[in-house]
Write a structure and sequence with these properties.
The chain has 295 residues and is mostly beta strands. The protein contains 1 helix and 30 strands. Helix content is 4%, strand content 47%. Strands 1-2-5-8-11-14-18-21-24-27-30 form an 11-stranded parallel beta sheet, with no helix packed on it. Strands 4, 7, 10, 13, 16, 17, 20, 23, 26 and 29 form a 10-stranded parallel beta sheet that branches. The longest helix has 11 residues. The chain starts with a strand and ends with a strand.
């Protein structure tokens, strides 16, 4: 069914609706339309009984405008370092929402972990702390170590963070499959804009990185893609002005197969530095076997 979250809705908070989901489960598709306003809360969503490819769960702005719904939280420590946590949840979508973490030391926005599969974050505005250090506590999107398969991050605006998108599988022998990262605009990351590691059959396409401040961590990576088998990397853009060493796009131990090769094509990378003695890599492949680099 369809429910309303807000001051005059069926639920006054997103957490209350989530708690009901976890305790009652679903038997059909469920949509939560969230009324315009500011929601000062964080949500940890566990697996929902009955959720499936048919019985999906959607949280979305009632107006369809992400700027109208602001979910804001200030993390205090590592235990609550998220605004929304897909904590083993499956078949859940966030659409047209703004999520912001205003924490100082800890400022994570989205966490995906605990075998959370088939989830989608689409057309959202995700904002973390401006951070040019190598801190692992100020990511904007953190797909944690483990196997969380077939998740999609699409058409979002991702602001700030030492790491804009940090997408990590399990190991070189246990890859996270079916990841889709498309159409996102990643602004002002400090260390890694998009970091993807230990993935299989993933798609990274149509994303744009903007970091032109000239103020980053000493080594800045636009697209860092490591241990990705049969990955497709196409139509991405990077506009980077770093502090010192800059990698526009770095493929590290990404192996395709003779019958199914990696494809890296039609990407546009502009990588420079404020340092006259900087090391700049526009596109670098390191042990990228069976990979086609085109256009």
């Amino acid at each position: 069914g369809t429910y309303i979250i807000g001051t005059t809705g069926d639920y006054t908070s997103i957490a209350a609706a989530s708690n009901d989901l976890m305790s009652r489960g679903v038997c059909s598709p469920v949509v939560f339309n969230i009324q315009s306003g500011v929601y000062n809360e964080s949500i940890s969503l566990l697996g929902v009984p009955g959720a499936s490819l048919t019985n999906t769960i959607t949280f979305q702005s009632a107006t369809g405008n992400a700027a109208d719904v602001n979910i804001t939280y200030a993390s205090a420590d590592a235990n609550d370092n998220f605004v929304f946590w897909f904590n083993g949840a499956d078949y859940v979508s966030l659409k047209n929402l703004s999520l912001t973490n205003t924490g100082s030391t800890y400022a994570g926005v989205i966490v995906i972990s605990g075998s959370a599969n088939y989830n989608t974050i689409d057309h959202c505005i995700l904002t973390g702390k401006a951070d040019i250090t190598s801190s692992a506590n100020t990511y904007v999107v953190n797909n944690k170590t483990g196997l969380d398969n077939y998740n999609t991050l699409s058409n979002n605006v991702i602001n700030n963070g030492s790491r804009g998108i940090y997408w990590y599988g399990s190991s070189s022998s246990s890859l996270e499959n079916g990841s889709v990262i498309t159409g996102n605009t990643i602004n002002n990351s400090g260390y890694y804009a998009l970091y993807s590691y230990y993935t299989g059959s993933s798609l990274i396409s149509g994303n744009t990185i903007n970091q032109t401040s000239g103020s980053t961590y000493s080594t800045f990576y636009g697209y860092y893609i490591g241990y990705a088998d049969t990955v497709t990397v196409t139509k991405n853009v990077a506009n980077i002005l770093g502090t010192s060493t800059v990698y526009g796009m770095y493929l590290y131990y990404c192996d395709g197969f003779a019958s199914k090769q990696n494809l890296v094509a039609n990407n546009m990378i502009s990588a420079t530095s404020v340092s006259a003695t900087a090391t700049i890599y526009g596109l670098r492949g390191y042990y990228a076997n069976y990979t086609q680099f085109l256009n």
